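Changelog-linked ticket: magnesium ion example.
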Amino acid sequence: MNKKSLFGTFGVRRKANHVLTPEFASKLATAYGNLVKGYVAVGGDTRTSTPMLKHAVISGLLSSGCNVIDLGILPTPAVQFAVRNYYDGGVIITASHNPPQDNGIKFVDTDGIGIPAEMEKKIEDIFFSDNLDRISWDQIGGLESNPNIIEEYIEDVISRIDQKSIRNAKLKVIVDCGNGAACFTTPYLLRRLGCEVTTLNCQPDGFFPGRNPEPTKDNLKDLIKAVKTIGADLGIAHDGDADRTICIDEMGNFVFGDKTFALVEKNMLIENGGGLIVTTVATSSAIYDIAANYGGEVLATKVGDLVVARELKNRNGLFGGEENGGLIFPDFVYGRDAALATAKIVEIMSRDGKPLSRLIRELPVYHSQKRKVECPDDLKVKLMDKIIDVTRDYKVDTKDGVKIFTEEGWVIIRPSGTEPIFRCFSEAKNEEDAERMAEWGVSLILEHLNL
Ligand code: MG
């Protein structure tokens, strides 16, 4: 395996029992344990390979002298919640929204935030140098379990929500957990809040027989149909490890993640009388418009939920998120959280007494376009430098790739961190301008690709 490719944007993600074997998982966990030396919580999603990898990770941690707390099967944010409140570190066995054959290992620090790049580098150095510190037999760590975290996590969400309005609204909600980790949280949470809940794909199953774990429009056809047939007020879908929430409105429309982000942002700013919002440079201008109207301030970071979570902590931010439906409530969990996001959306609908489609219509309207252009990895840096150079005379932001602002809107051009492609997103007040901006971005990439 290539040394540099061990960690992706958040943890190691590979095909289970192929590269991601028990030996690999155990050794990687020992390297992490050597740096943490304390109480480490371990949890994972519903994948078939999760128990195998979890036990290997536990062995590796115990061998490094760490004490291990097994949290069982639960959402990624519930592990982050547990670590932040009780432990020195955490390991999450999950491949998030990837297909069933994959799995992954994520490490978090004592605040429950994904570990920074410097620590990943240290783990890799220990892993590849075979310089593992295996402690003596009389110092091997202890193993215990904590089955109460899910209950505490659900209770904590409920304590942050206006339960009375939700109870009075008696909303009909269909929950599609995609057979993933949310099976243990969202249906129970919503029932306890007083919603009338119908479940779809809510039996945990690592073969994901109901649908692909990624909550895209194509994968949510059954949910969309169920919302229309039953006449529900809302459809809720999660990814495999339950850190993302996607909504279907009462008409059966798929609601894009940036819309729910904007809706919750507006309400967080109203409830708190303003505050700092953190998001990435690739997110909609609607986030800025809402902040300007409701006493907020926006900080844009590079693309990636870890960067957003870390900035929220460092700057004591109020709320953050990404355009894909990942919402971060830093007061609760320093990472994307699906349970509080779901409860917040239900709370807003109940309190305002408006259907979701109308709440979405009241938000600032922008049109966006997404394109990609193939580009070999070894040409990425040179091509990016060239595009930055030729767009110097425009108003630009170069935090991540280059975001170019014009009268019509903006376009962002950036190399993908995981695939041999350049991404190009645009946004404008109308469809035609958004398309034009995107095509201009693509032409800039193609024009300089062959130099
Ligand atoms: Mg996920």
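Closing comment: Example verified and attached. The chain has four domains: 12-148, 167-255, 257-361, 367-449. The chain has a mean pLDDT of 95.
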